[in-house]
Specification:
With 425 residues, the chain is of the alpha/beta class. The protein has twelve helices and 24 strands. 30% of the residues lie in helices and 27% in strands. Helix 3 runs parallel beside helix 11 and helix 3 packs across helix 12. The structure holds flavin-adenine dinucleotide.
């Protein structure tokens, strides 16, 4: 039977119906074959694909605190004013109603890899045969003195997890007077989404050009140079935002002062701005660190790349931004979605007594909007190399745009629609 007709038949016979829905605390199942922690790009994809690839035979429980999925990709356009929060929000409902994933709206507060259980923040415990962990990133507040308090007060925002903070930062930009300064600081790589900060700077400049032409965008980067699509971004900035967007590499932020709205650097002079958008260092999501799964310097999770199984916890598979990346593997939504599929296939094979695919492949495309329509991209294909337990970029596959075009803008928006459908619908 074809997958679609299997799904339709299952719905008709009520098989999925009995599994569907979002579990309240009272009805949280005490056991599931696969528990997924985090319903972002990695986790939602894995949850759906374990169901699909097992022909709906393996139970999946997805634990995620947010009511809906809110996408970081495209969120820079909300800051620039070209898109709204509604444009980047997708319901989780179809994961339950169409794919029979049991959704639990909660946080996982503890993972016991010996007992093979997770504990929810609200108390219940769920036993698993396989655990998939995709909690995204944690922001390392202590890497910049004063930042945590500045963030808590709402004065200095990051908006590096899309949601209410995206809107709050947009409001700060709207309130900035014409002639004001927006300063964005970027941490040393690796961080979530290599081109993301440069896209953000472009979006803010695009907004200023239309709405507040005397204003300035300062990009203060701890890295020596633009870390992704550098020549393309820099050419576009020179041709379109000259005098408005200024880029400076080698600027490592070490402290902020909320009284003067100033950021301090390891070496260079302090910078004062009307809106400060300070991005600290990043690590694997907090739950991975608390559970001993961040075994690369307590910061990232090391996995066996053939299955994405943790190297320190059997039957625990870790995905997405939390993973210690292979060479040239970006921390991106597209990559997390690819991880999700490889891990789902491995988990289904292992639970079904089948051979795990020994030659998994991953793909990635990162589109960046340089204004409200024009886009540049970088694409790559990654092949598993068993002898080195890593993925390597396939030579000659992928590459970067010749230059920004409106057509790539159409592709980028379609990419977003497609990946949301692939992960969630
Ligand atoms: C501004 C910006 C622009 C970006 N643009 C792009 C782009 O154009 N293309 C691209 O491919 N990528 C882009 N990215 C990167 C992309 O968003 C991330 O790489 C991707 O979200 C990583 O997926 P993930 O599953 O690891 O984490 P996430 O998608 O962040 O998902 C993690 C989920 O886990 C949940 N969670 C965390 N802890 C727990 C817990 N203890 N219990 C239960 N749930 C938990 C969170 O609520 C969250 O929903 C961008 C990022 C930013 C910030």
């Amino acid at each position: 039977m074809k997958r679609r007709s299997l799904v339709q038949a299952s719905i008709a016979s009520g098989v999925l119906g009995s599994l569907a829905g979002c579990a309240s605390t009272a009805s949280v199942p005490s056991k599931a074959r696969v528990v997924v922690v985090g319903g972002g790009y990695g986790g939602a994809t894995a949850a759906k694909y374990v169901r699909l690839l097992s022909d709906y035979k393996i139970d999946v429980v997805l634990v995620e605190p947010n009511e809906s999925f809110i996408s970081c990709p495209i969120s820079n356009l909300v800051l620039g004013g070209a898109k709204s929060m509604a444009d980047i929000t997708v319901s989780y409902d179809r994961l339950s109603s169409m794919h029979g994933v049991t959704r639990v709206k909660d946080m996982v507060s503890r993972i016991d890899t010996a007992q093979k259980t997770v504990t929810l923040a609200s108390g219940p415990v769920i036993a698993y045969d396989k655990l998939i962990v995709s909690p995204g990133i944690d922001l390392l507040w202590n890497s910049i003195e004063g930042l945590q308090a500045a963030h808590a007060s709402g004065q200095i925002l990051q908006a590096w997890k899309a949601g209410p903070e995206t809107l709050a930062l947009r409001k700060q930009l709207e309130a900035l007077p014409d002639g004001g300064v927006y300063a964005l600081t970027i941490p040393m790589a690796p961080y979530r989404c290599p081109p993301g900060p440069y896209e953000r700077a472009s979006q803010v400049a695009s907004y200023f050009k239309k709405a507040k032409p005397k204003s300035k965008v300062l990009v203060l980067d701890a890295n020596p140079d633009v870390t992704s699509k550098g020549p393309l971004f820099k050419k576009f900035w020179a041709e379109n935002y000259a005098g408005m967007l200024e880029y400076q590499g080698g600027h490592k932020a070490v402290a902020v002062d909320v009284k003067t709205n100033t950021v301090k650097f390891e070496v260079q002079a302090d910078v004062k701005a009307d809106v400060l958008n300070v991005l600290p260092d990043m690590s694997a999501g907090a739950i991975a660190k608390q559970s001993g799964l961040a075994n690369a310097n307590g910061r990232w999770s090391v996995v066996n790349f053939m299955t994405f199984e943790s190297t320190v916890a059997k039957d625990v598979h870790i995905l997405g931004d939390s993973v210690l990346s292979a060479p040239l593997m970006p921390k991106s939504g597209h990559m997390a979605n690819s991880h999700g599929k490889v891990a789902a296939a491995a988990v289904v094979a292992q639970l079904s007594g089948l051979e795990v695919n020994a030659q998994p492949m991953l793909t990635n495309t990162c589109y960046s909007f340089v204004d409200d329509k024009r886009v540049i991209h970088v694409a790559s294909v990654h092949q598993y190399v068993a002898a080195e337990n890593t993925f390597k970029a396939v030579a000659g596959a992928g590459g970067v745009s010749g230059g920004p075009t409106d057509l790539e803008g159409v592709y980028a928006w379609n990419w977003a629609q497609n990946i949301w459908a692939d992960s969630l619908l």
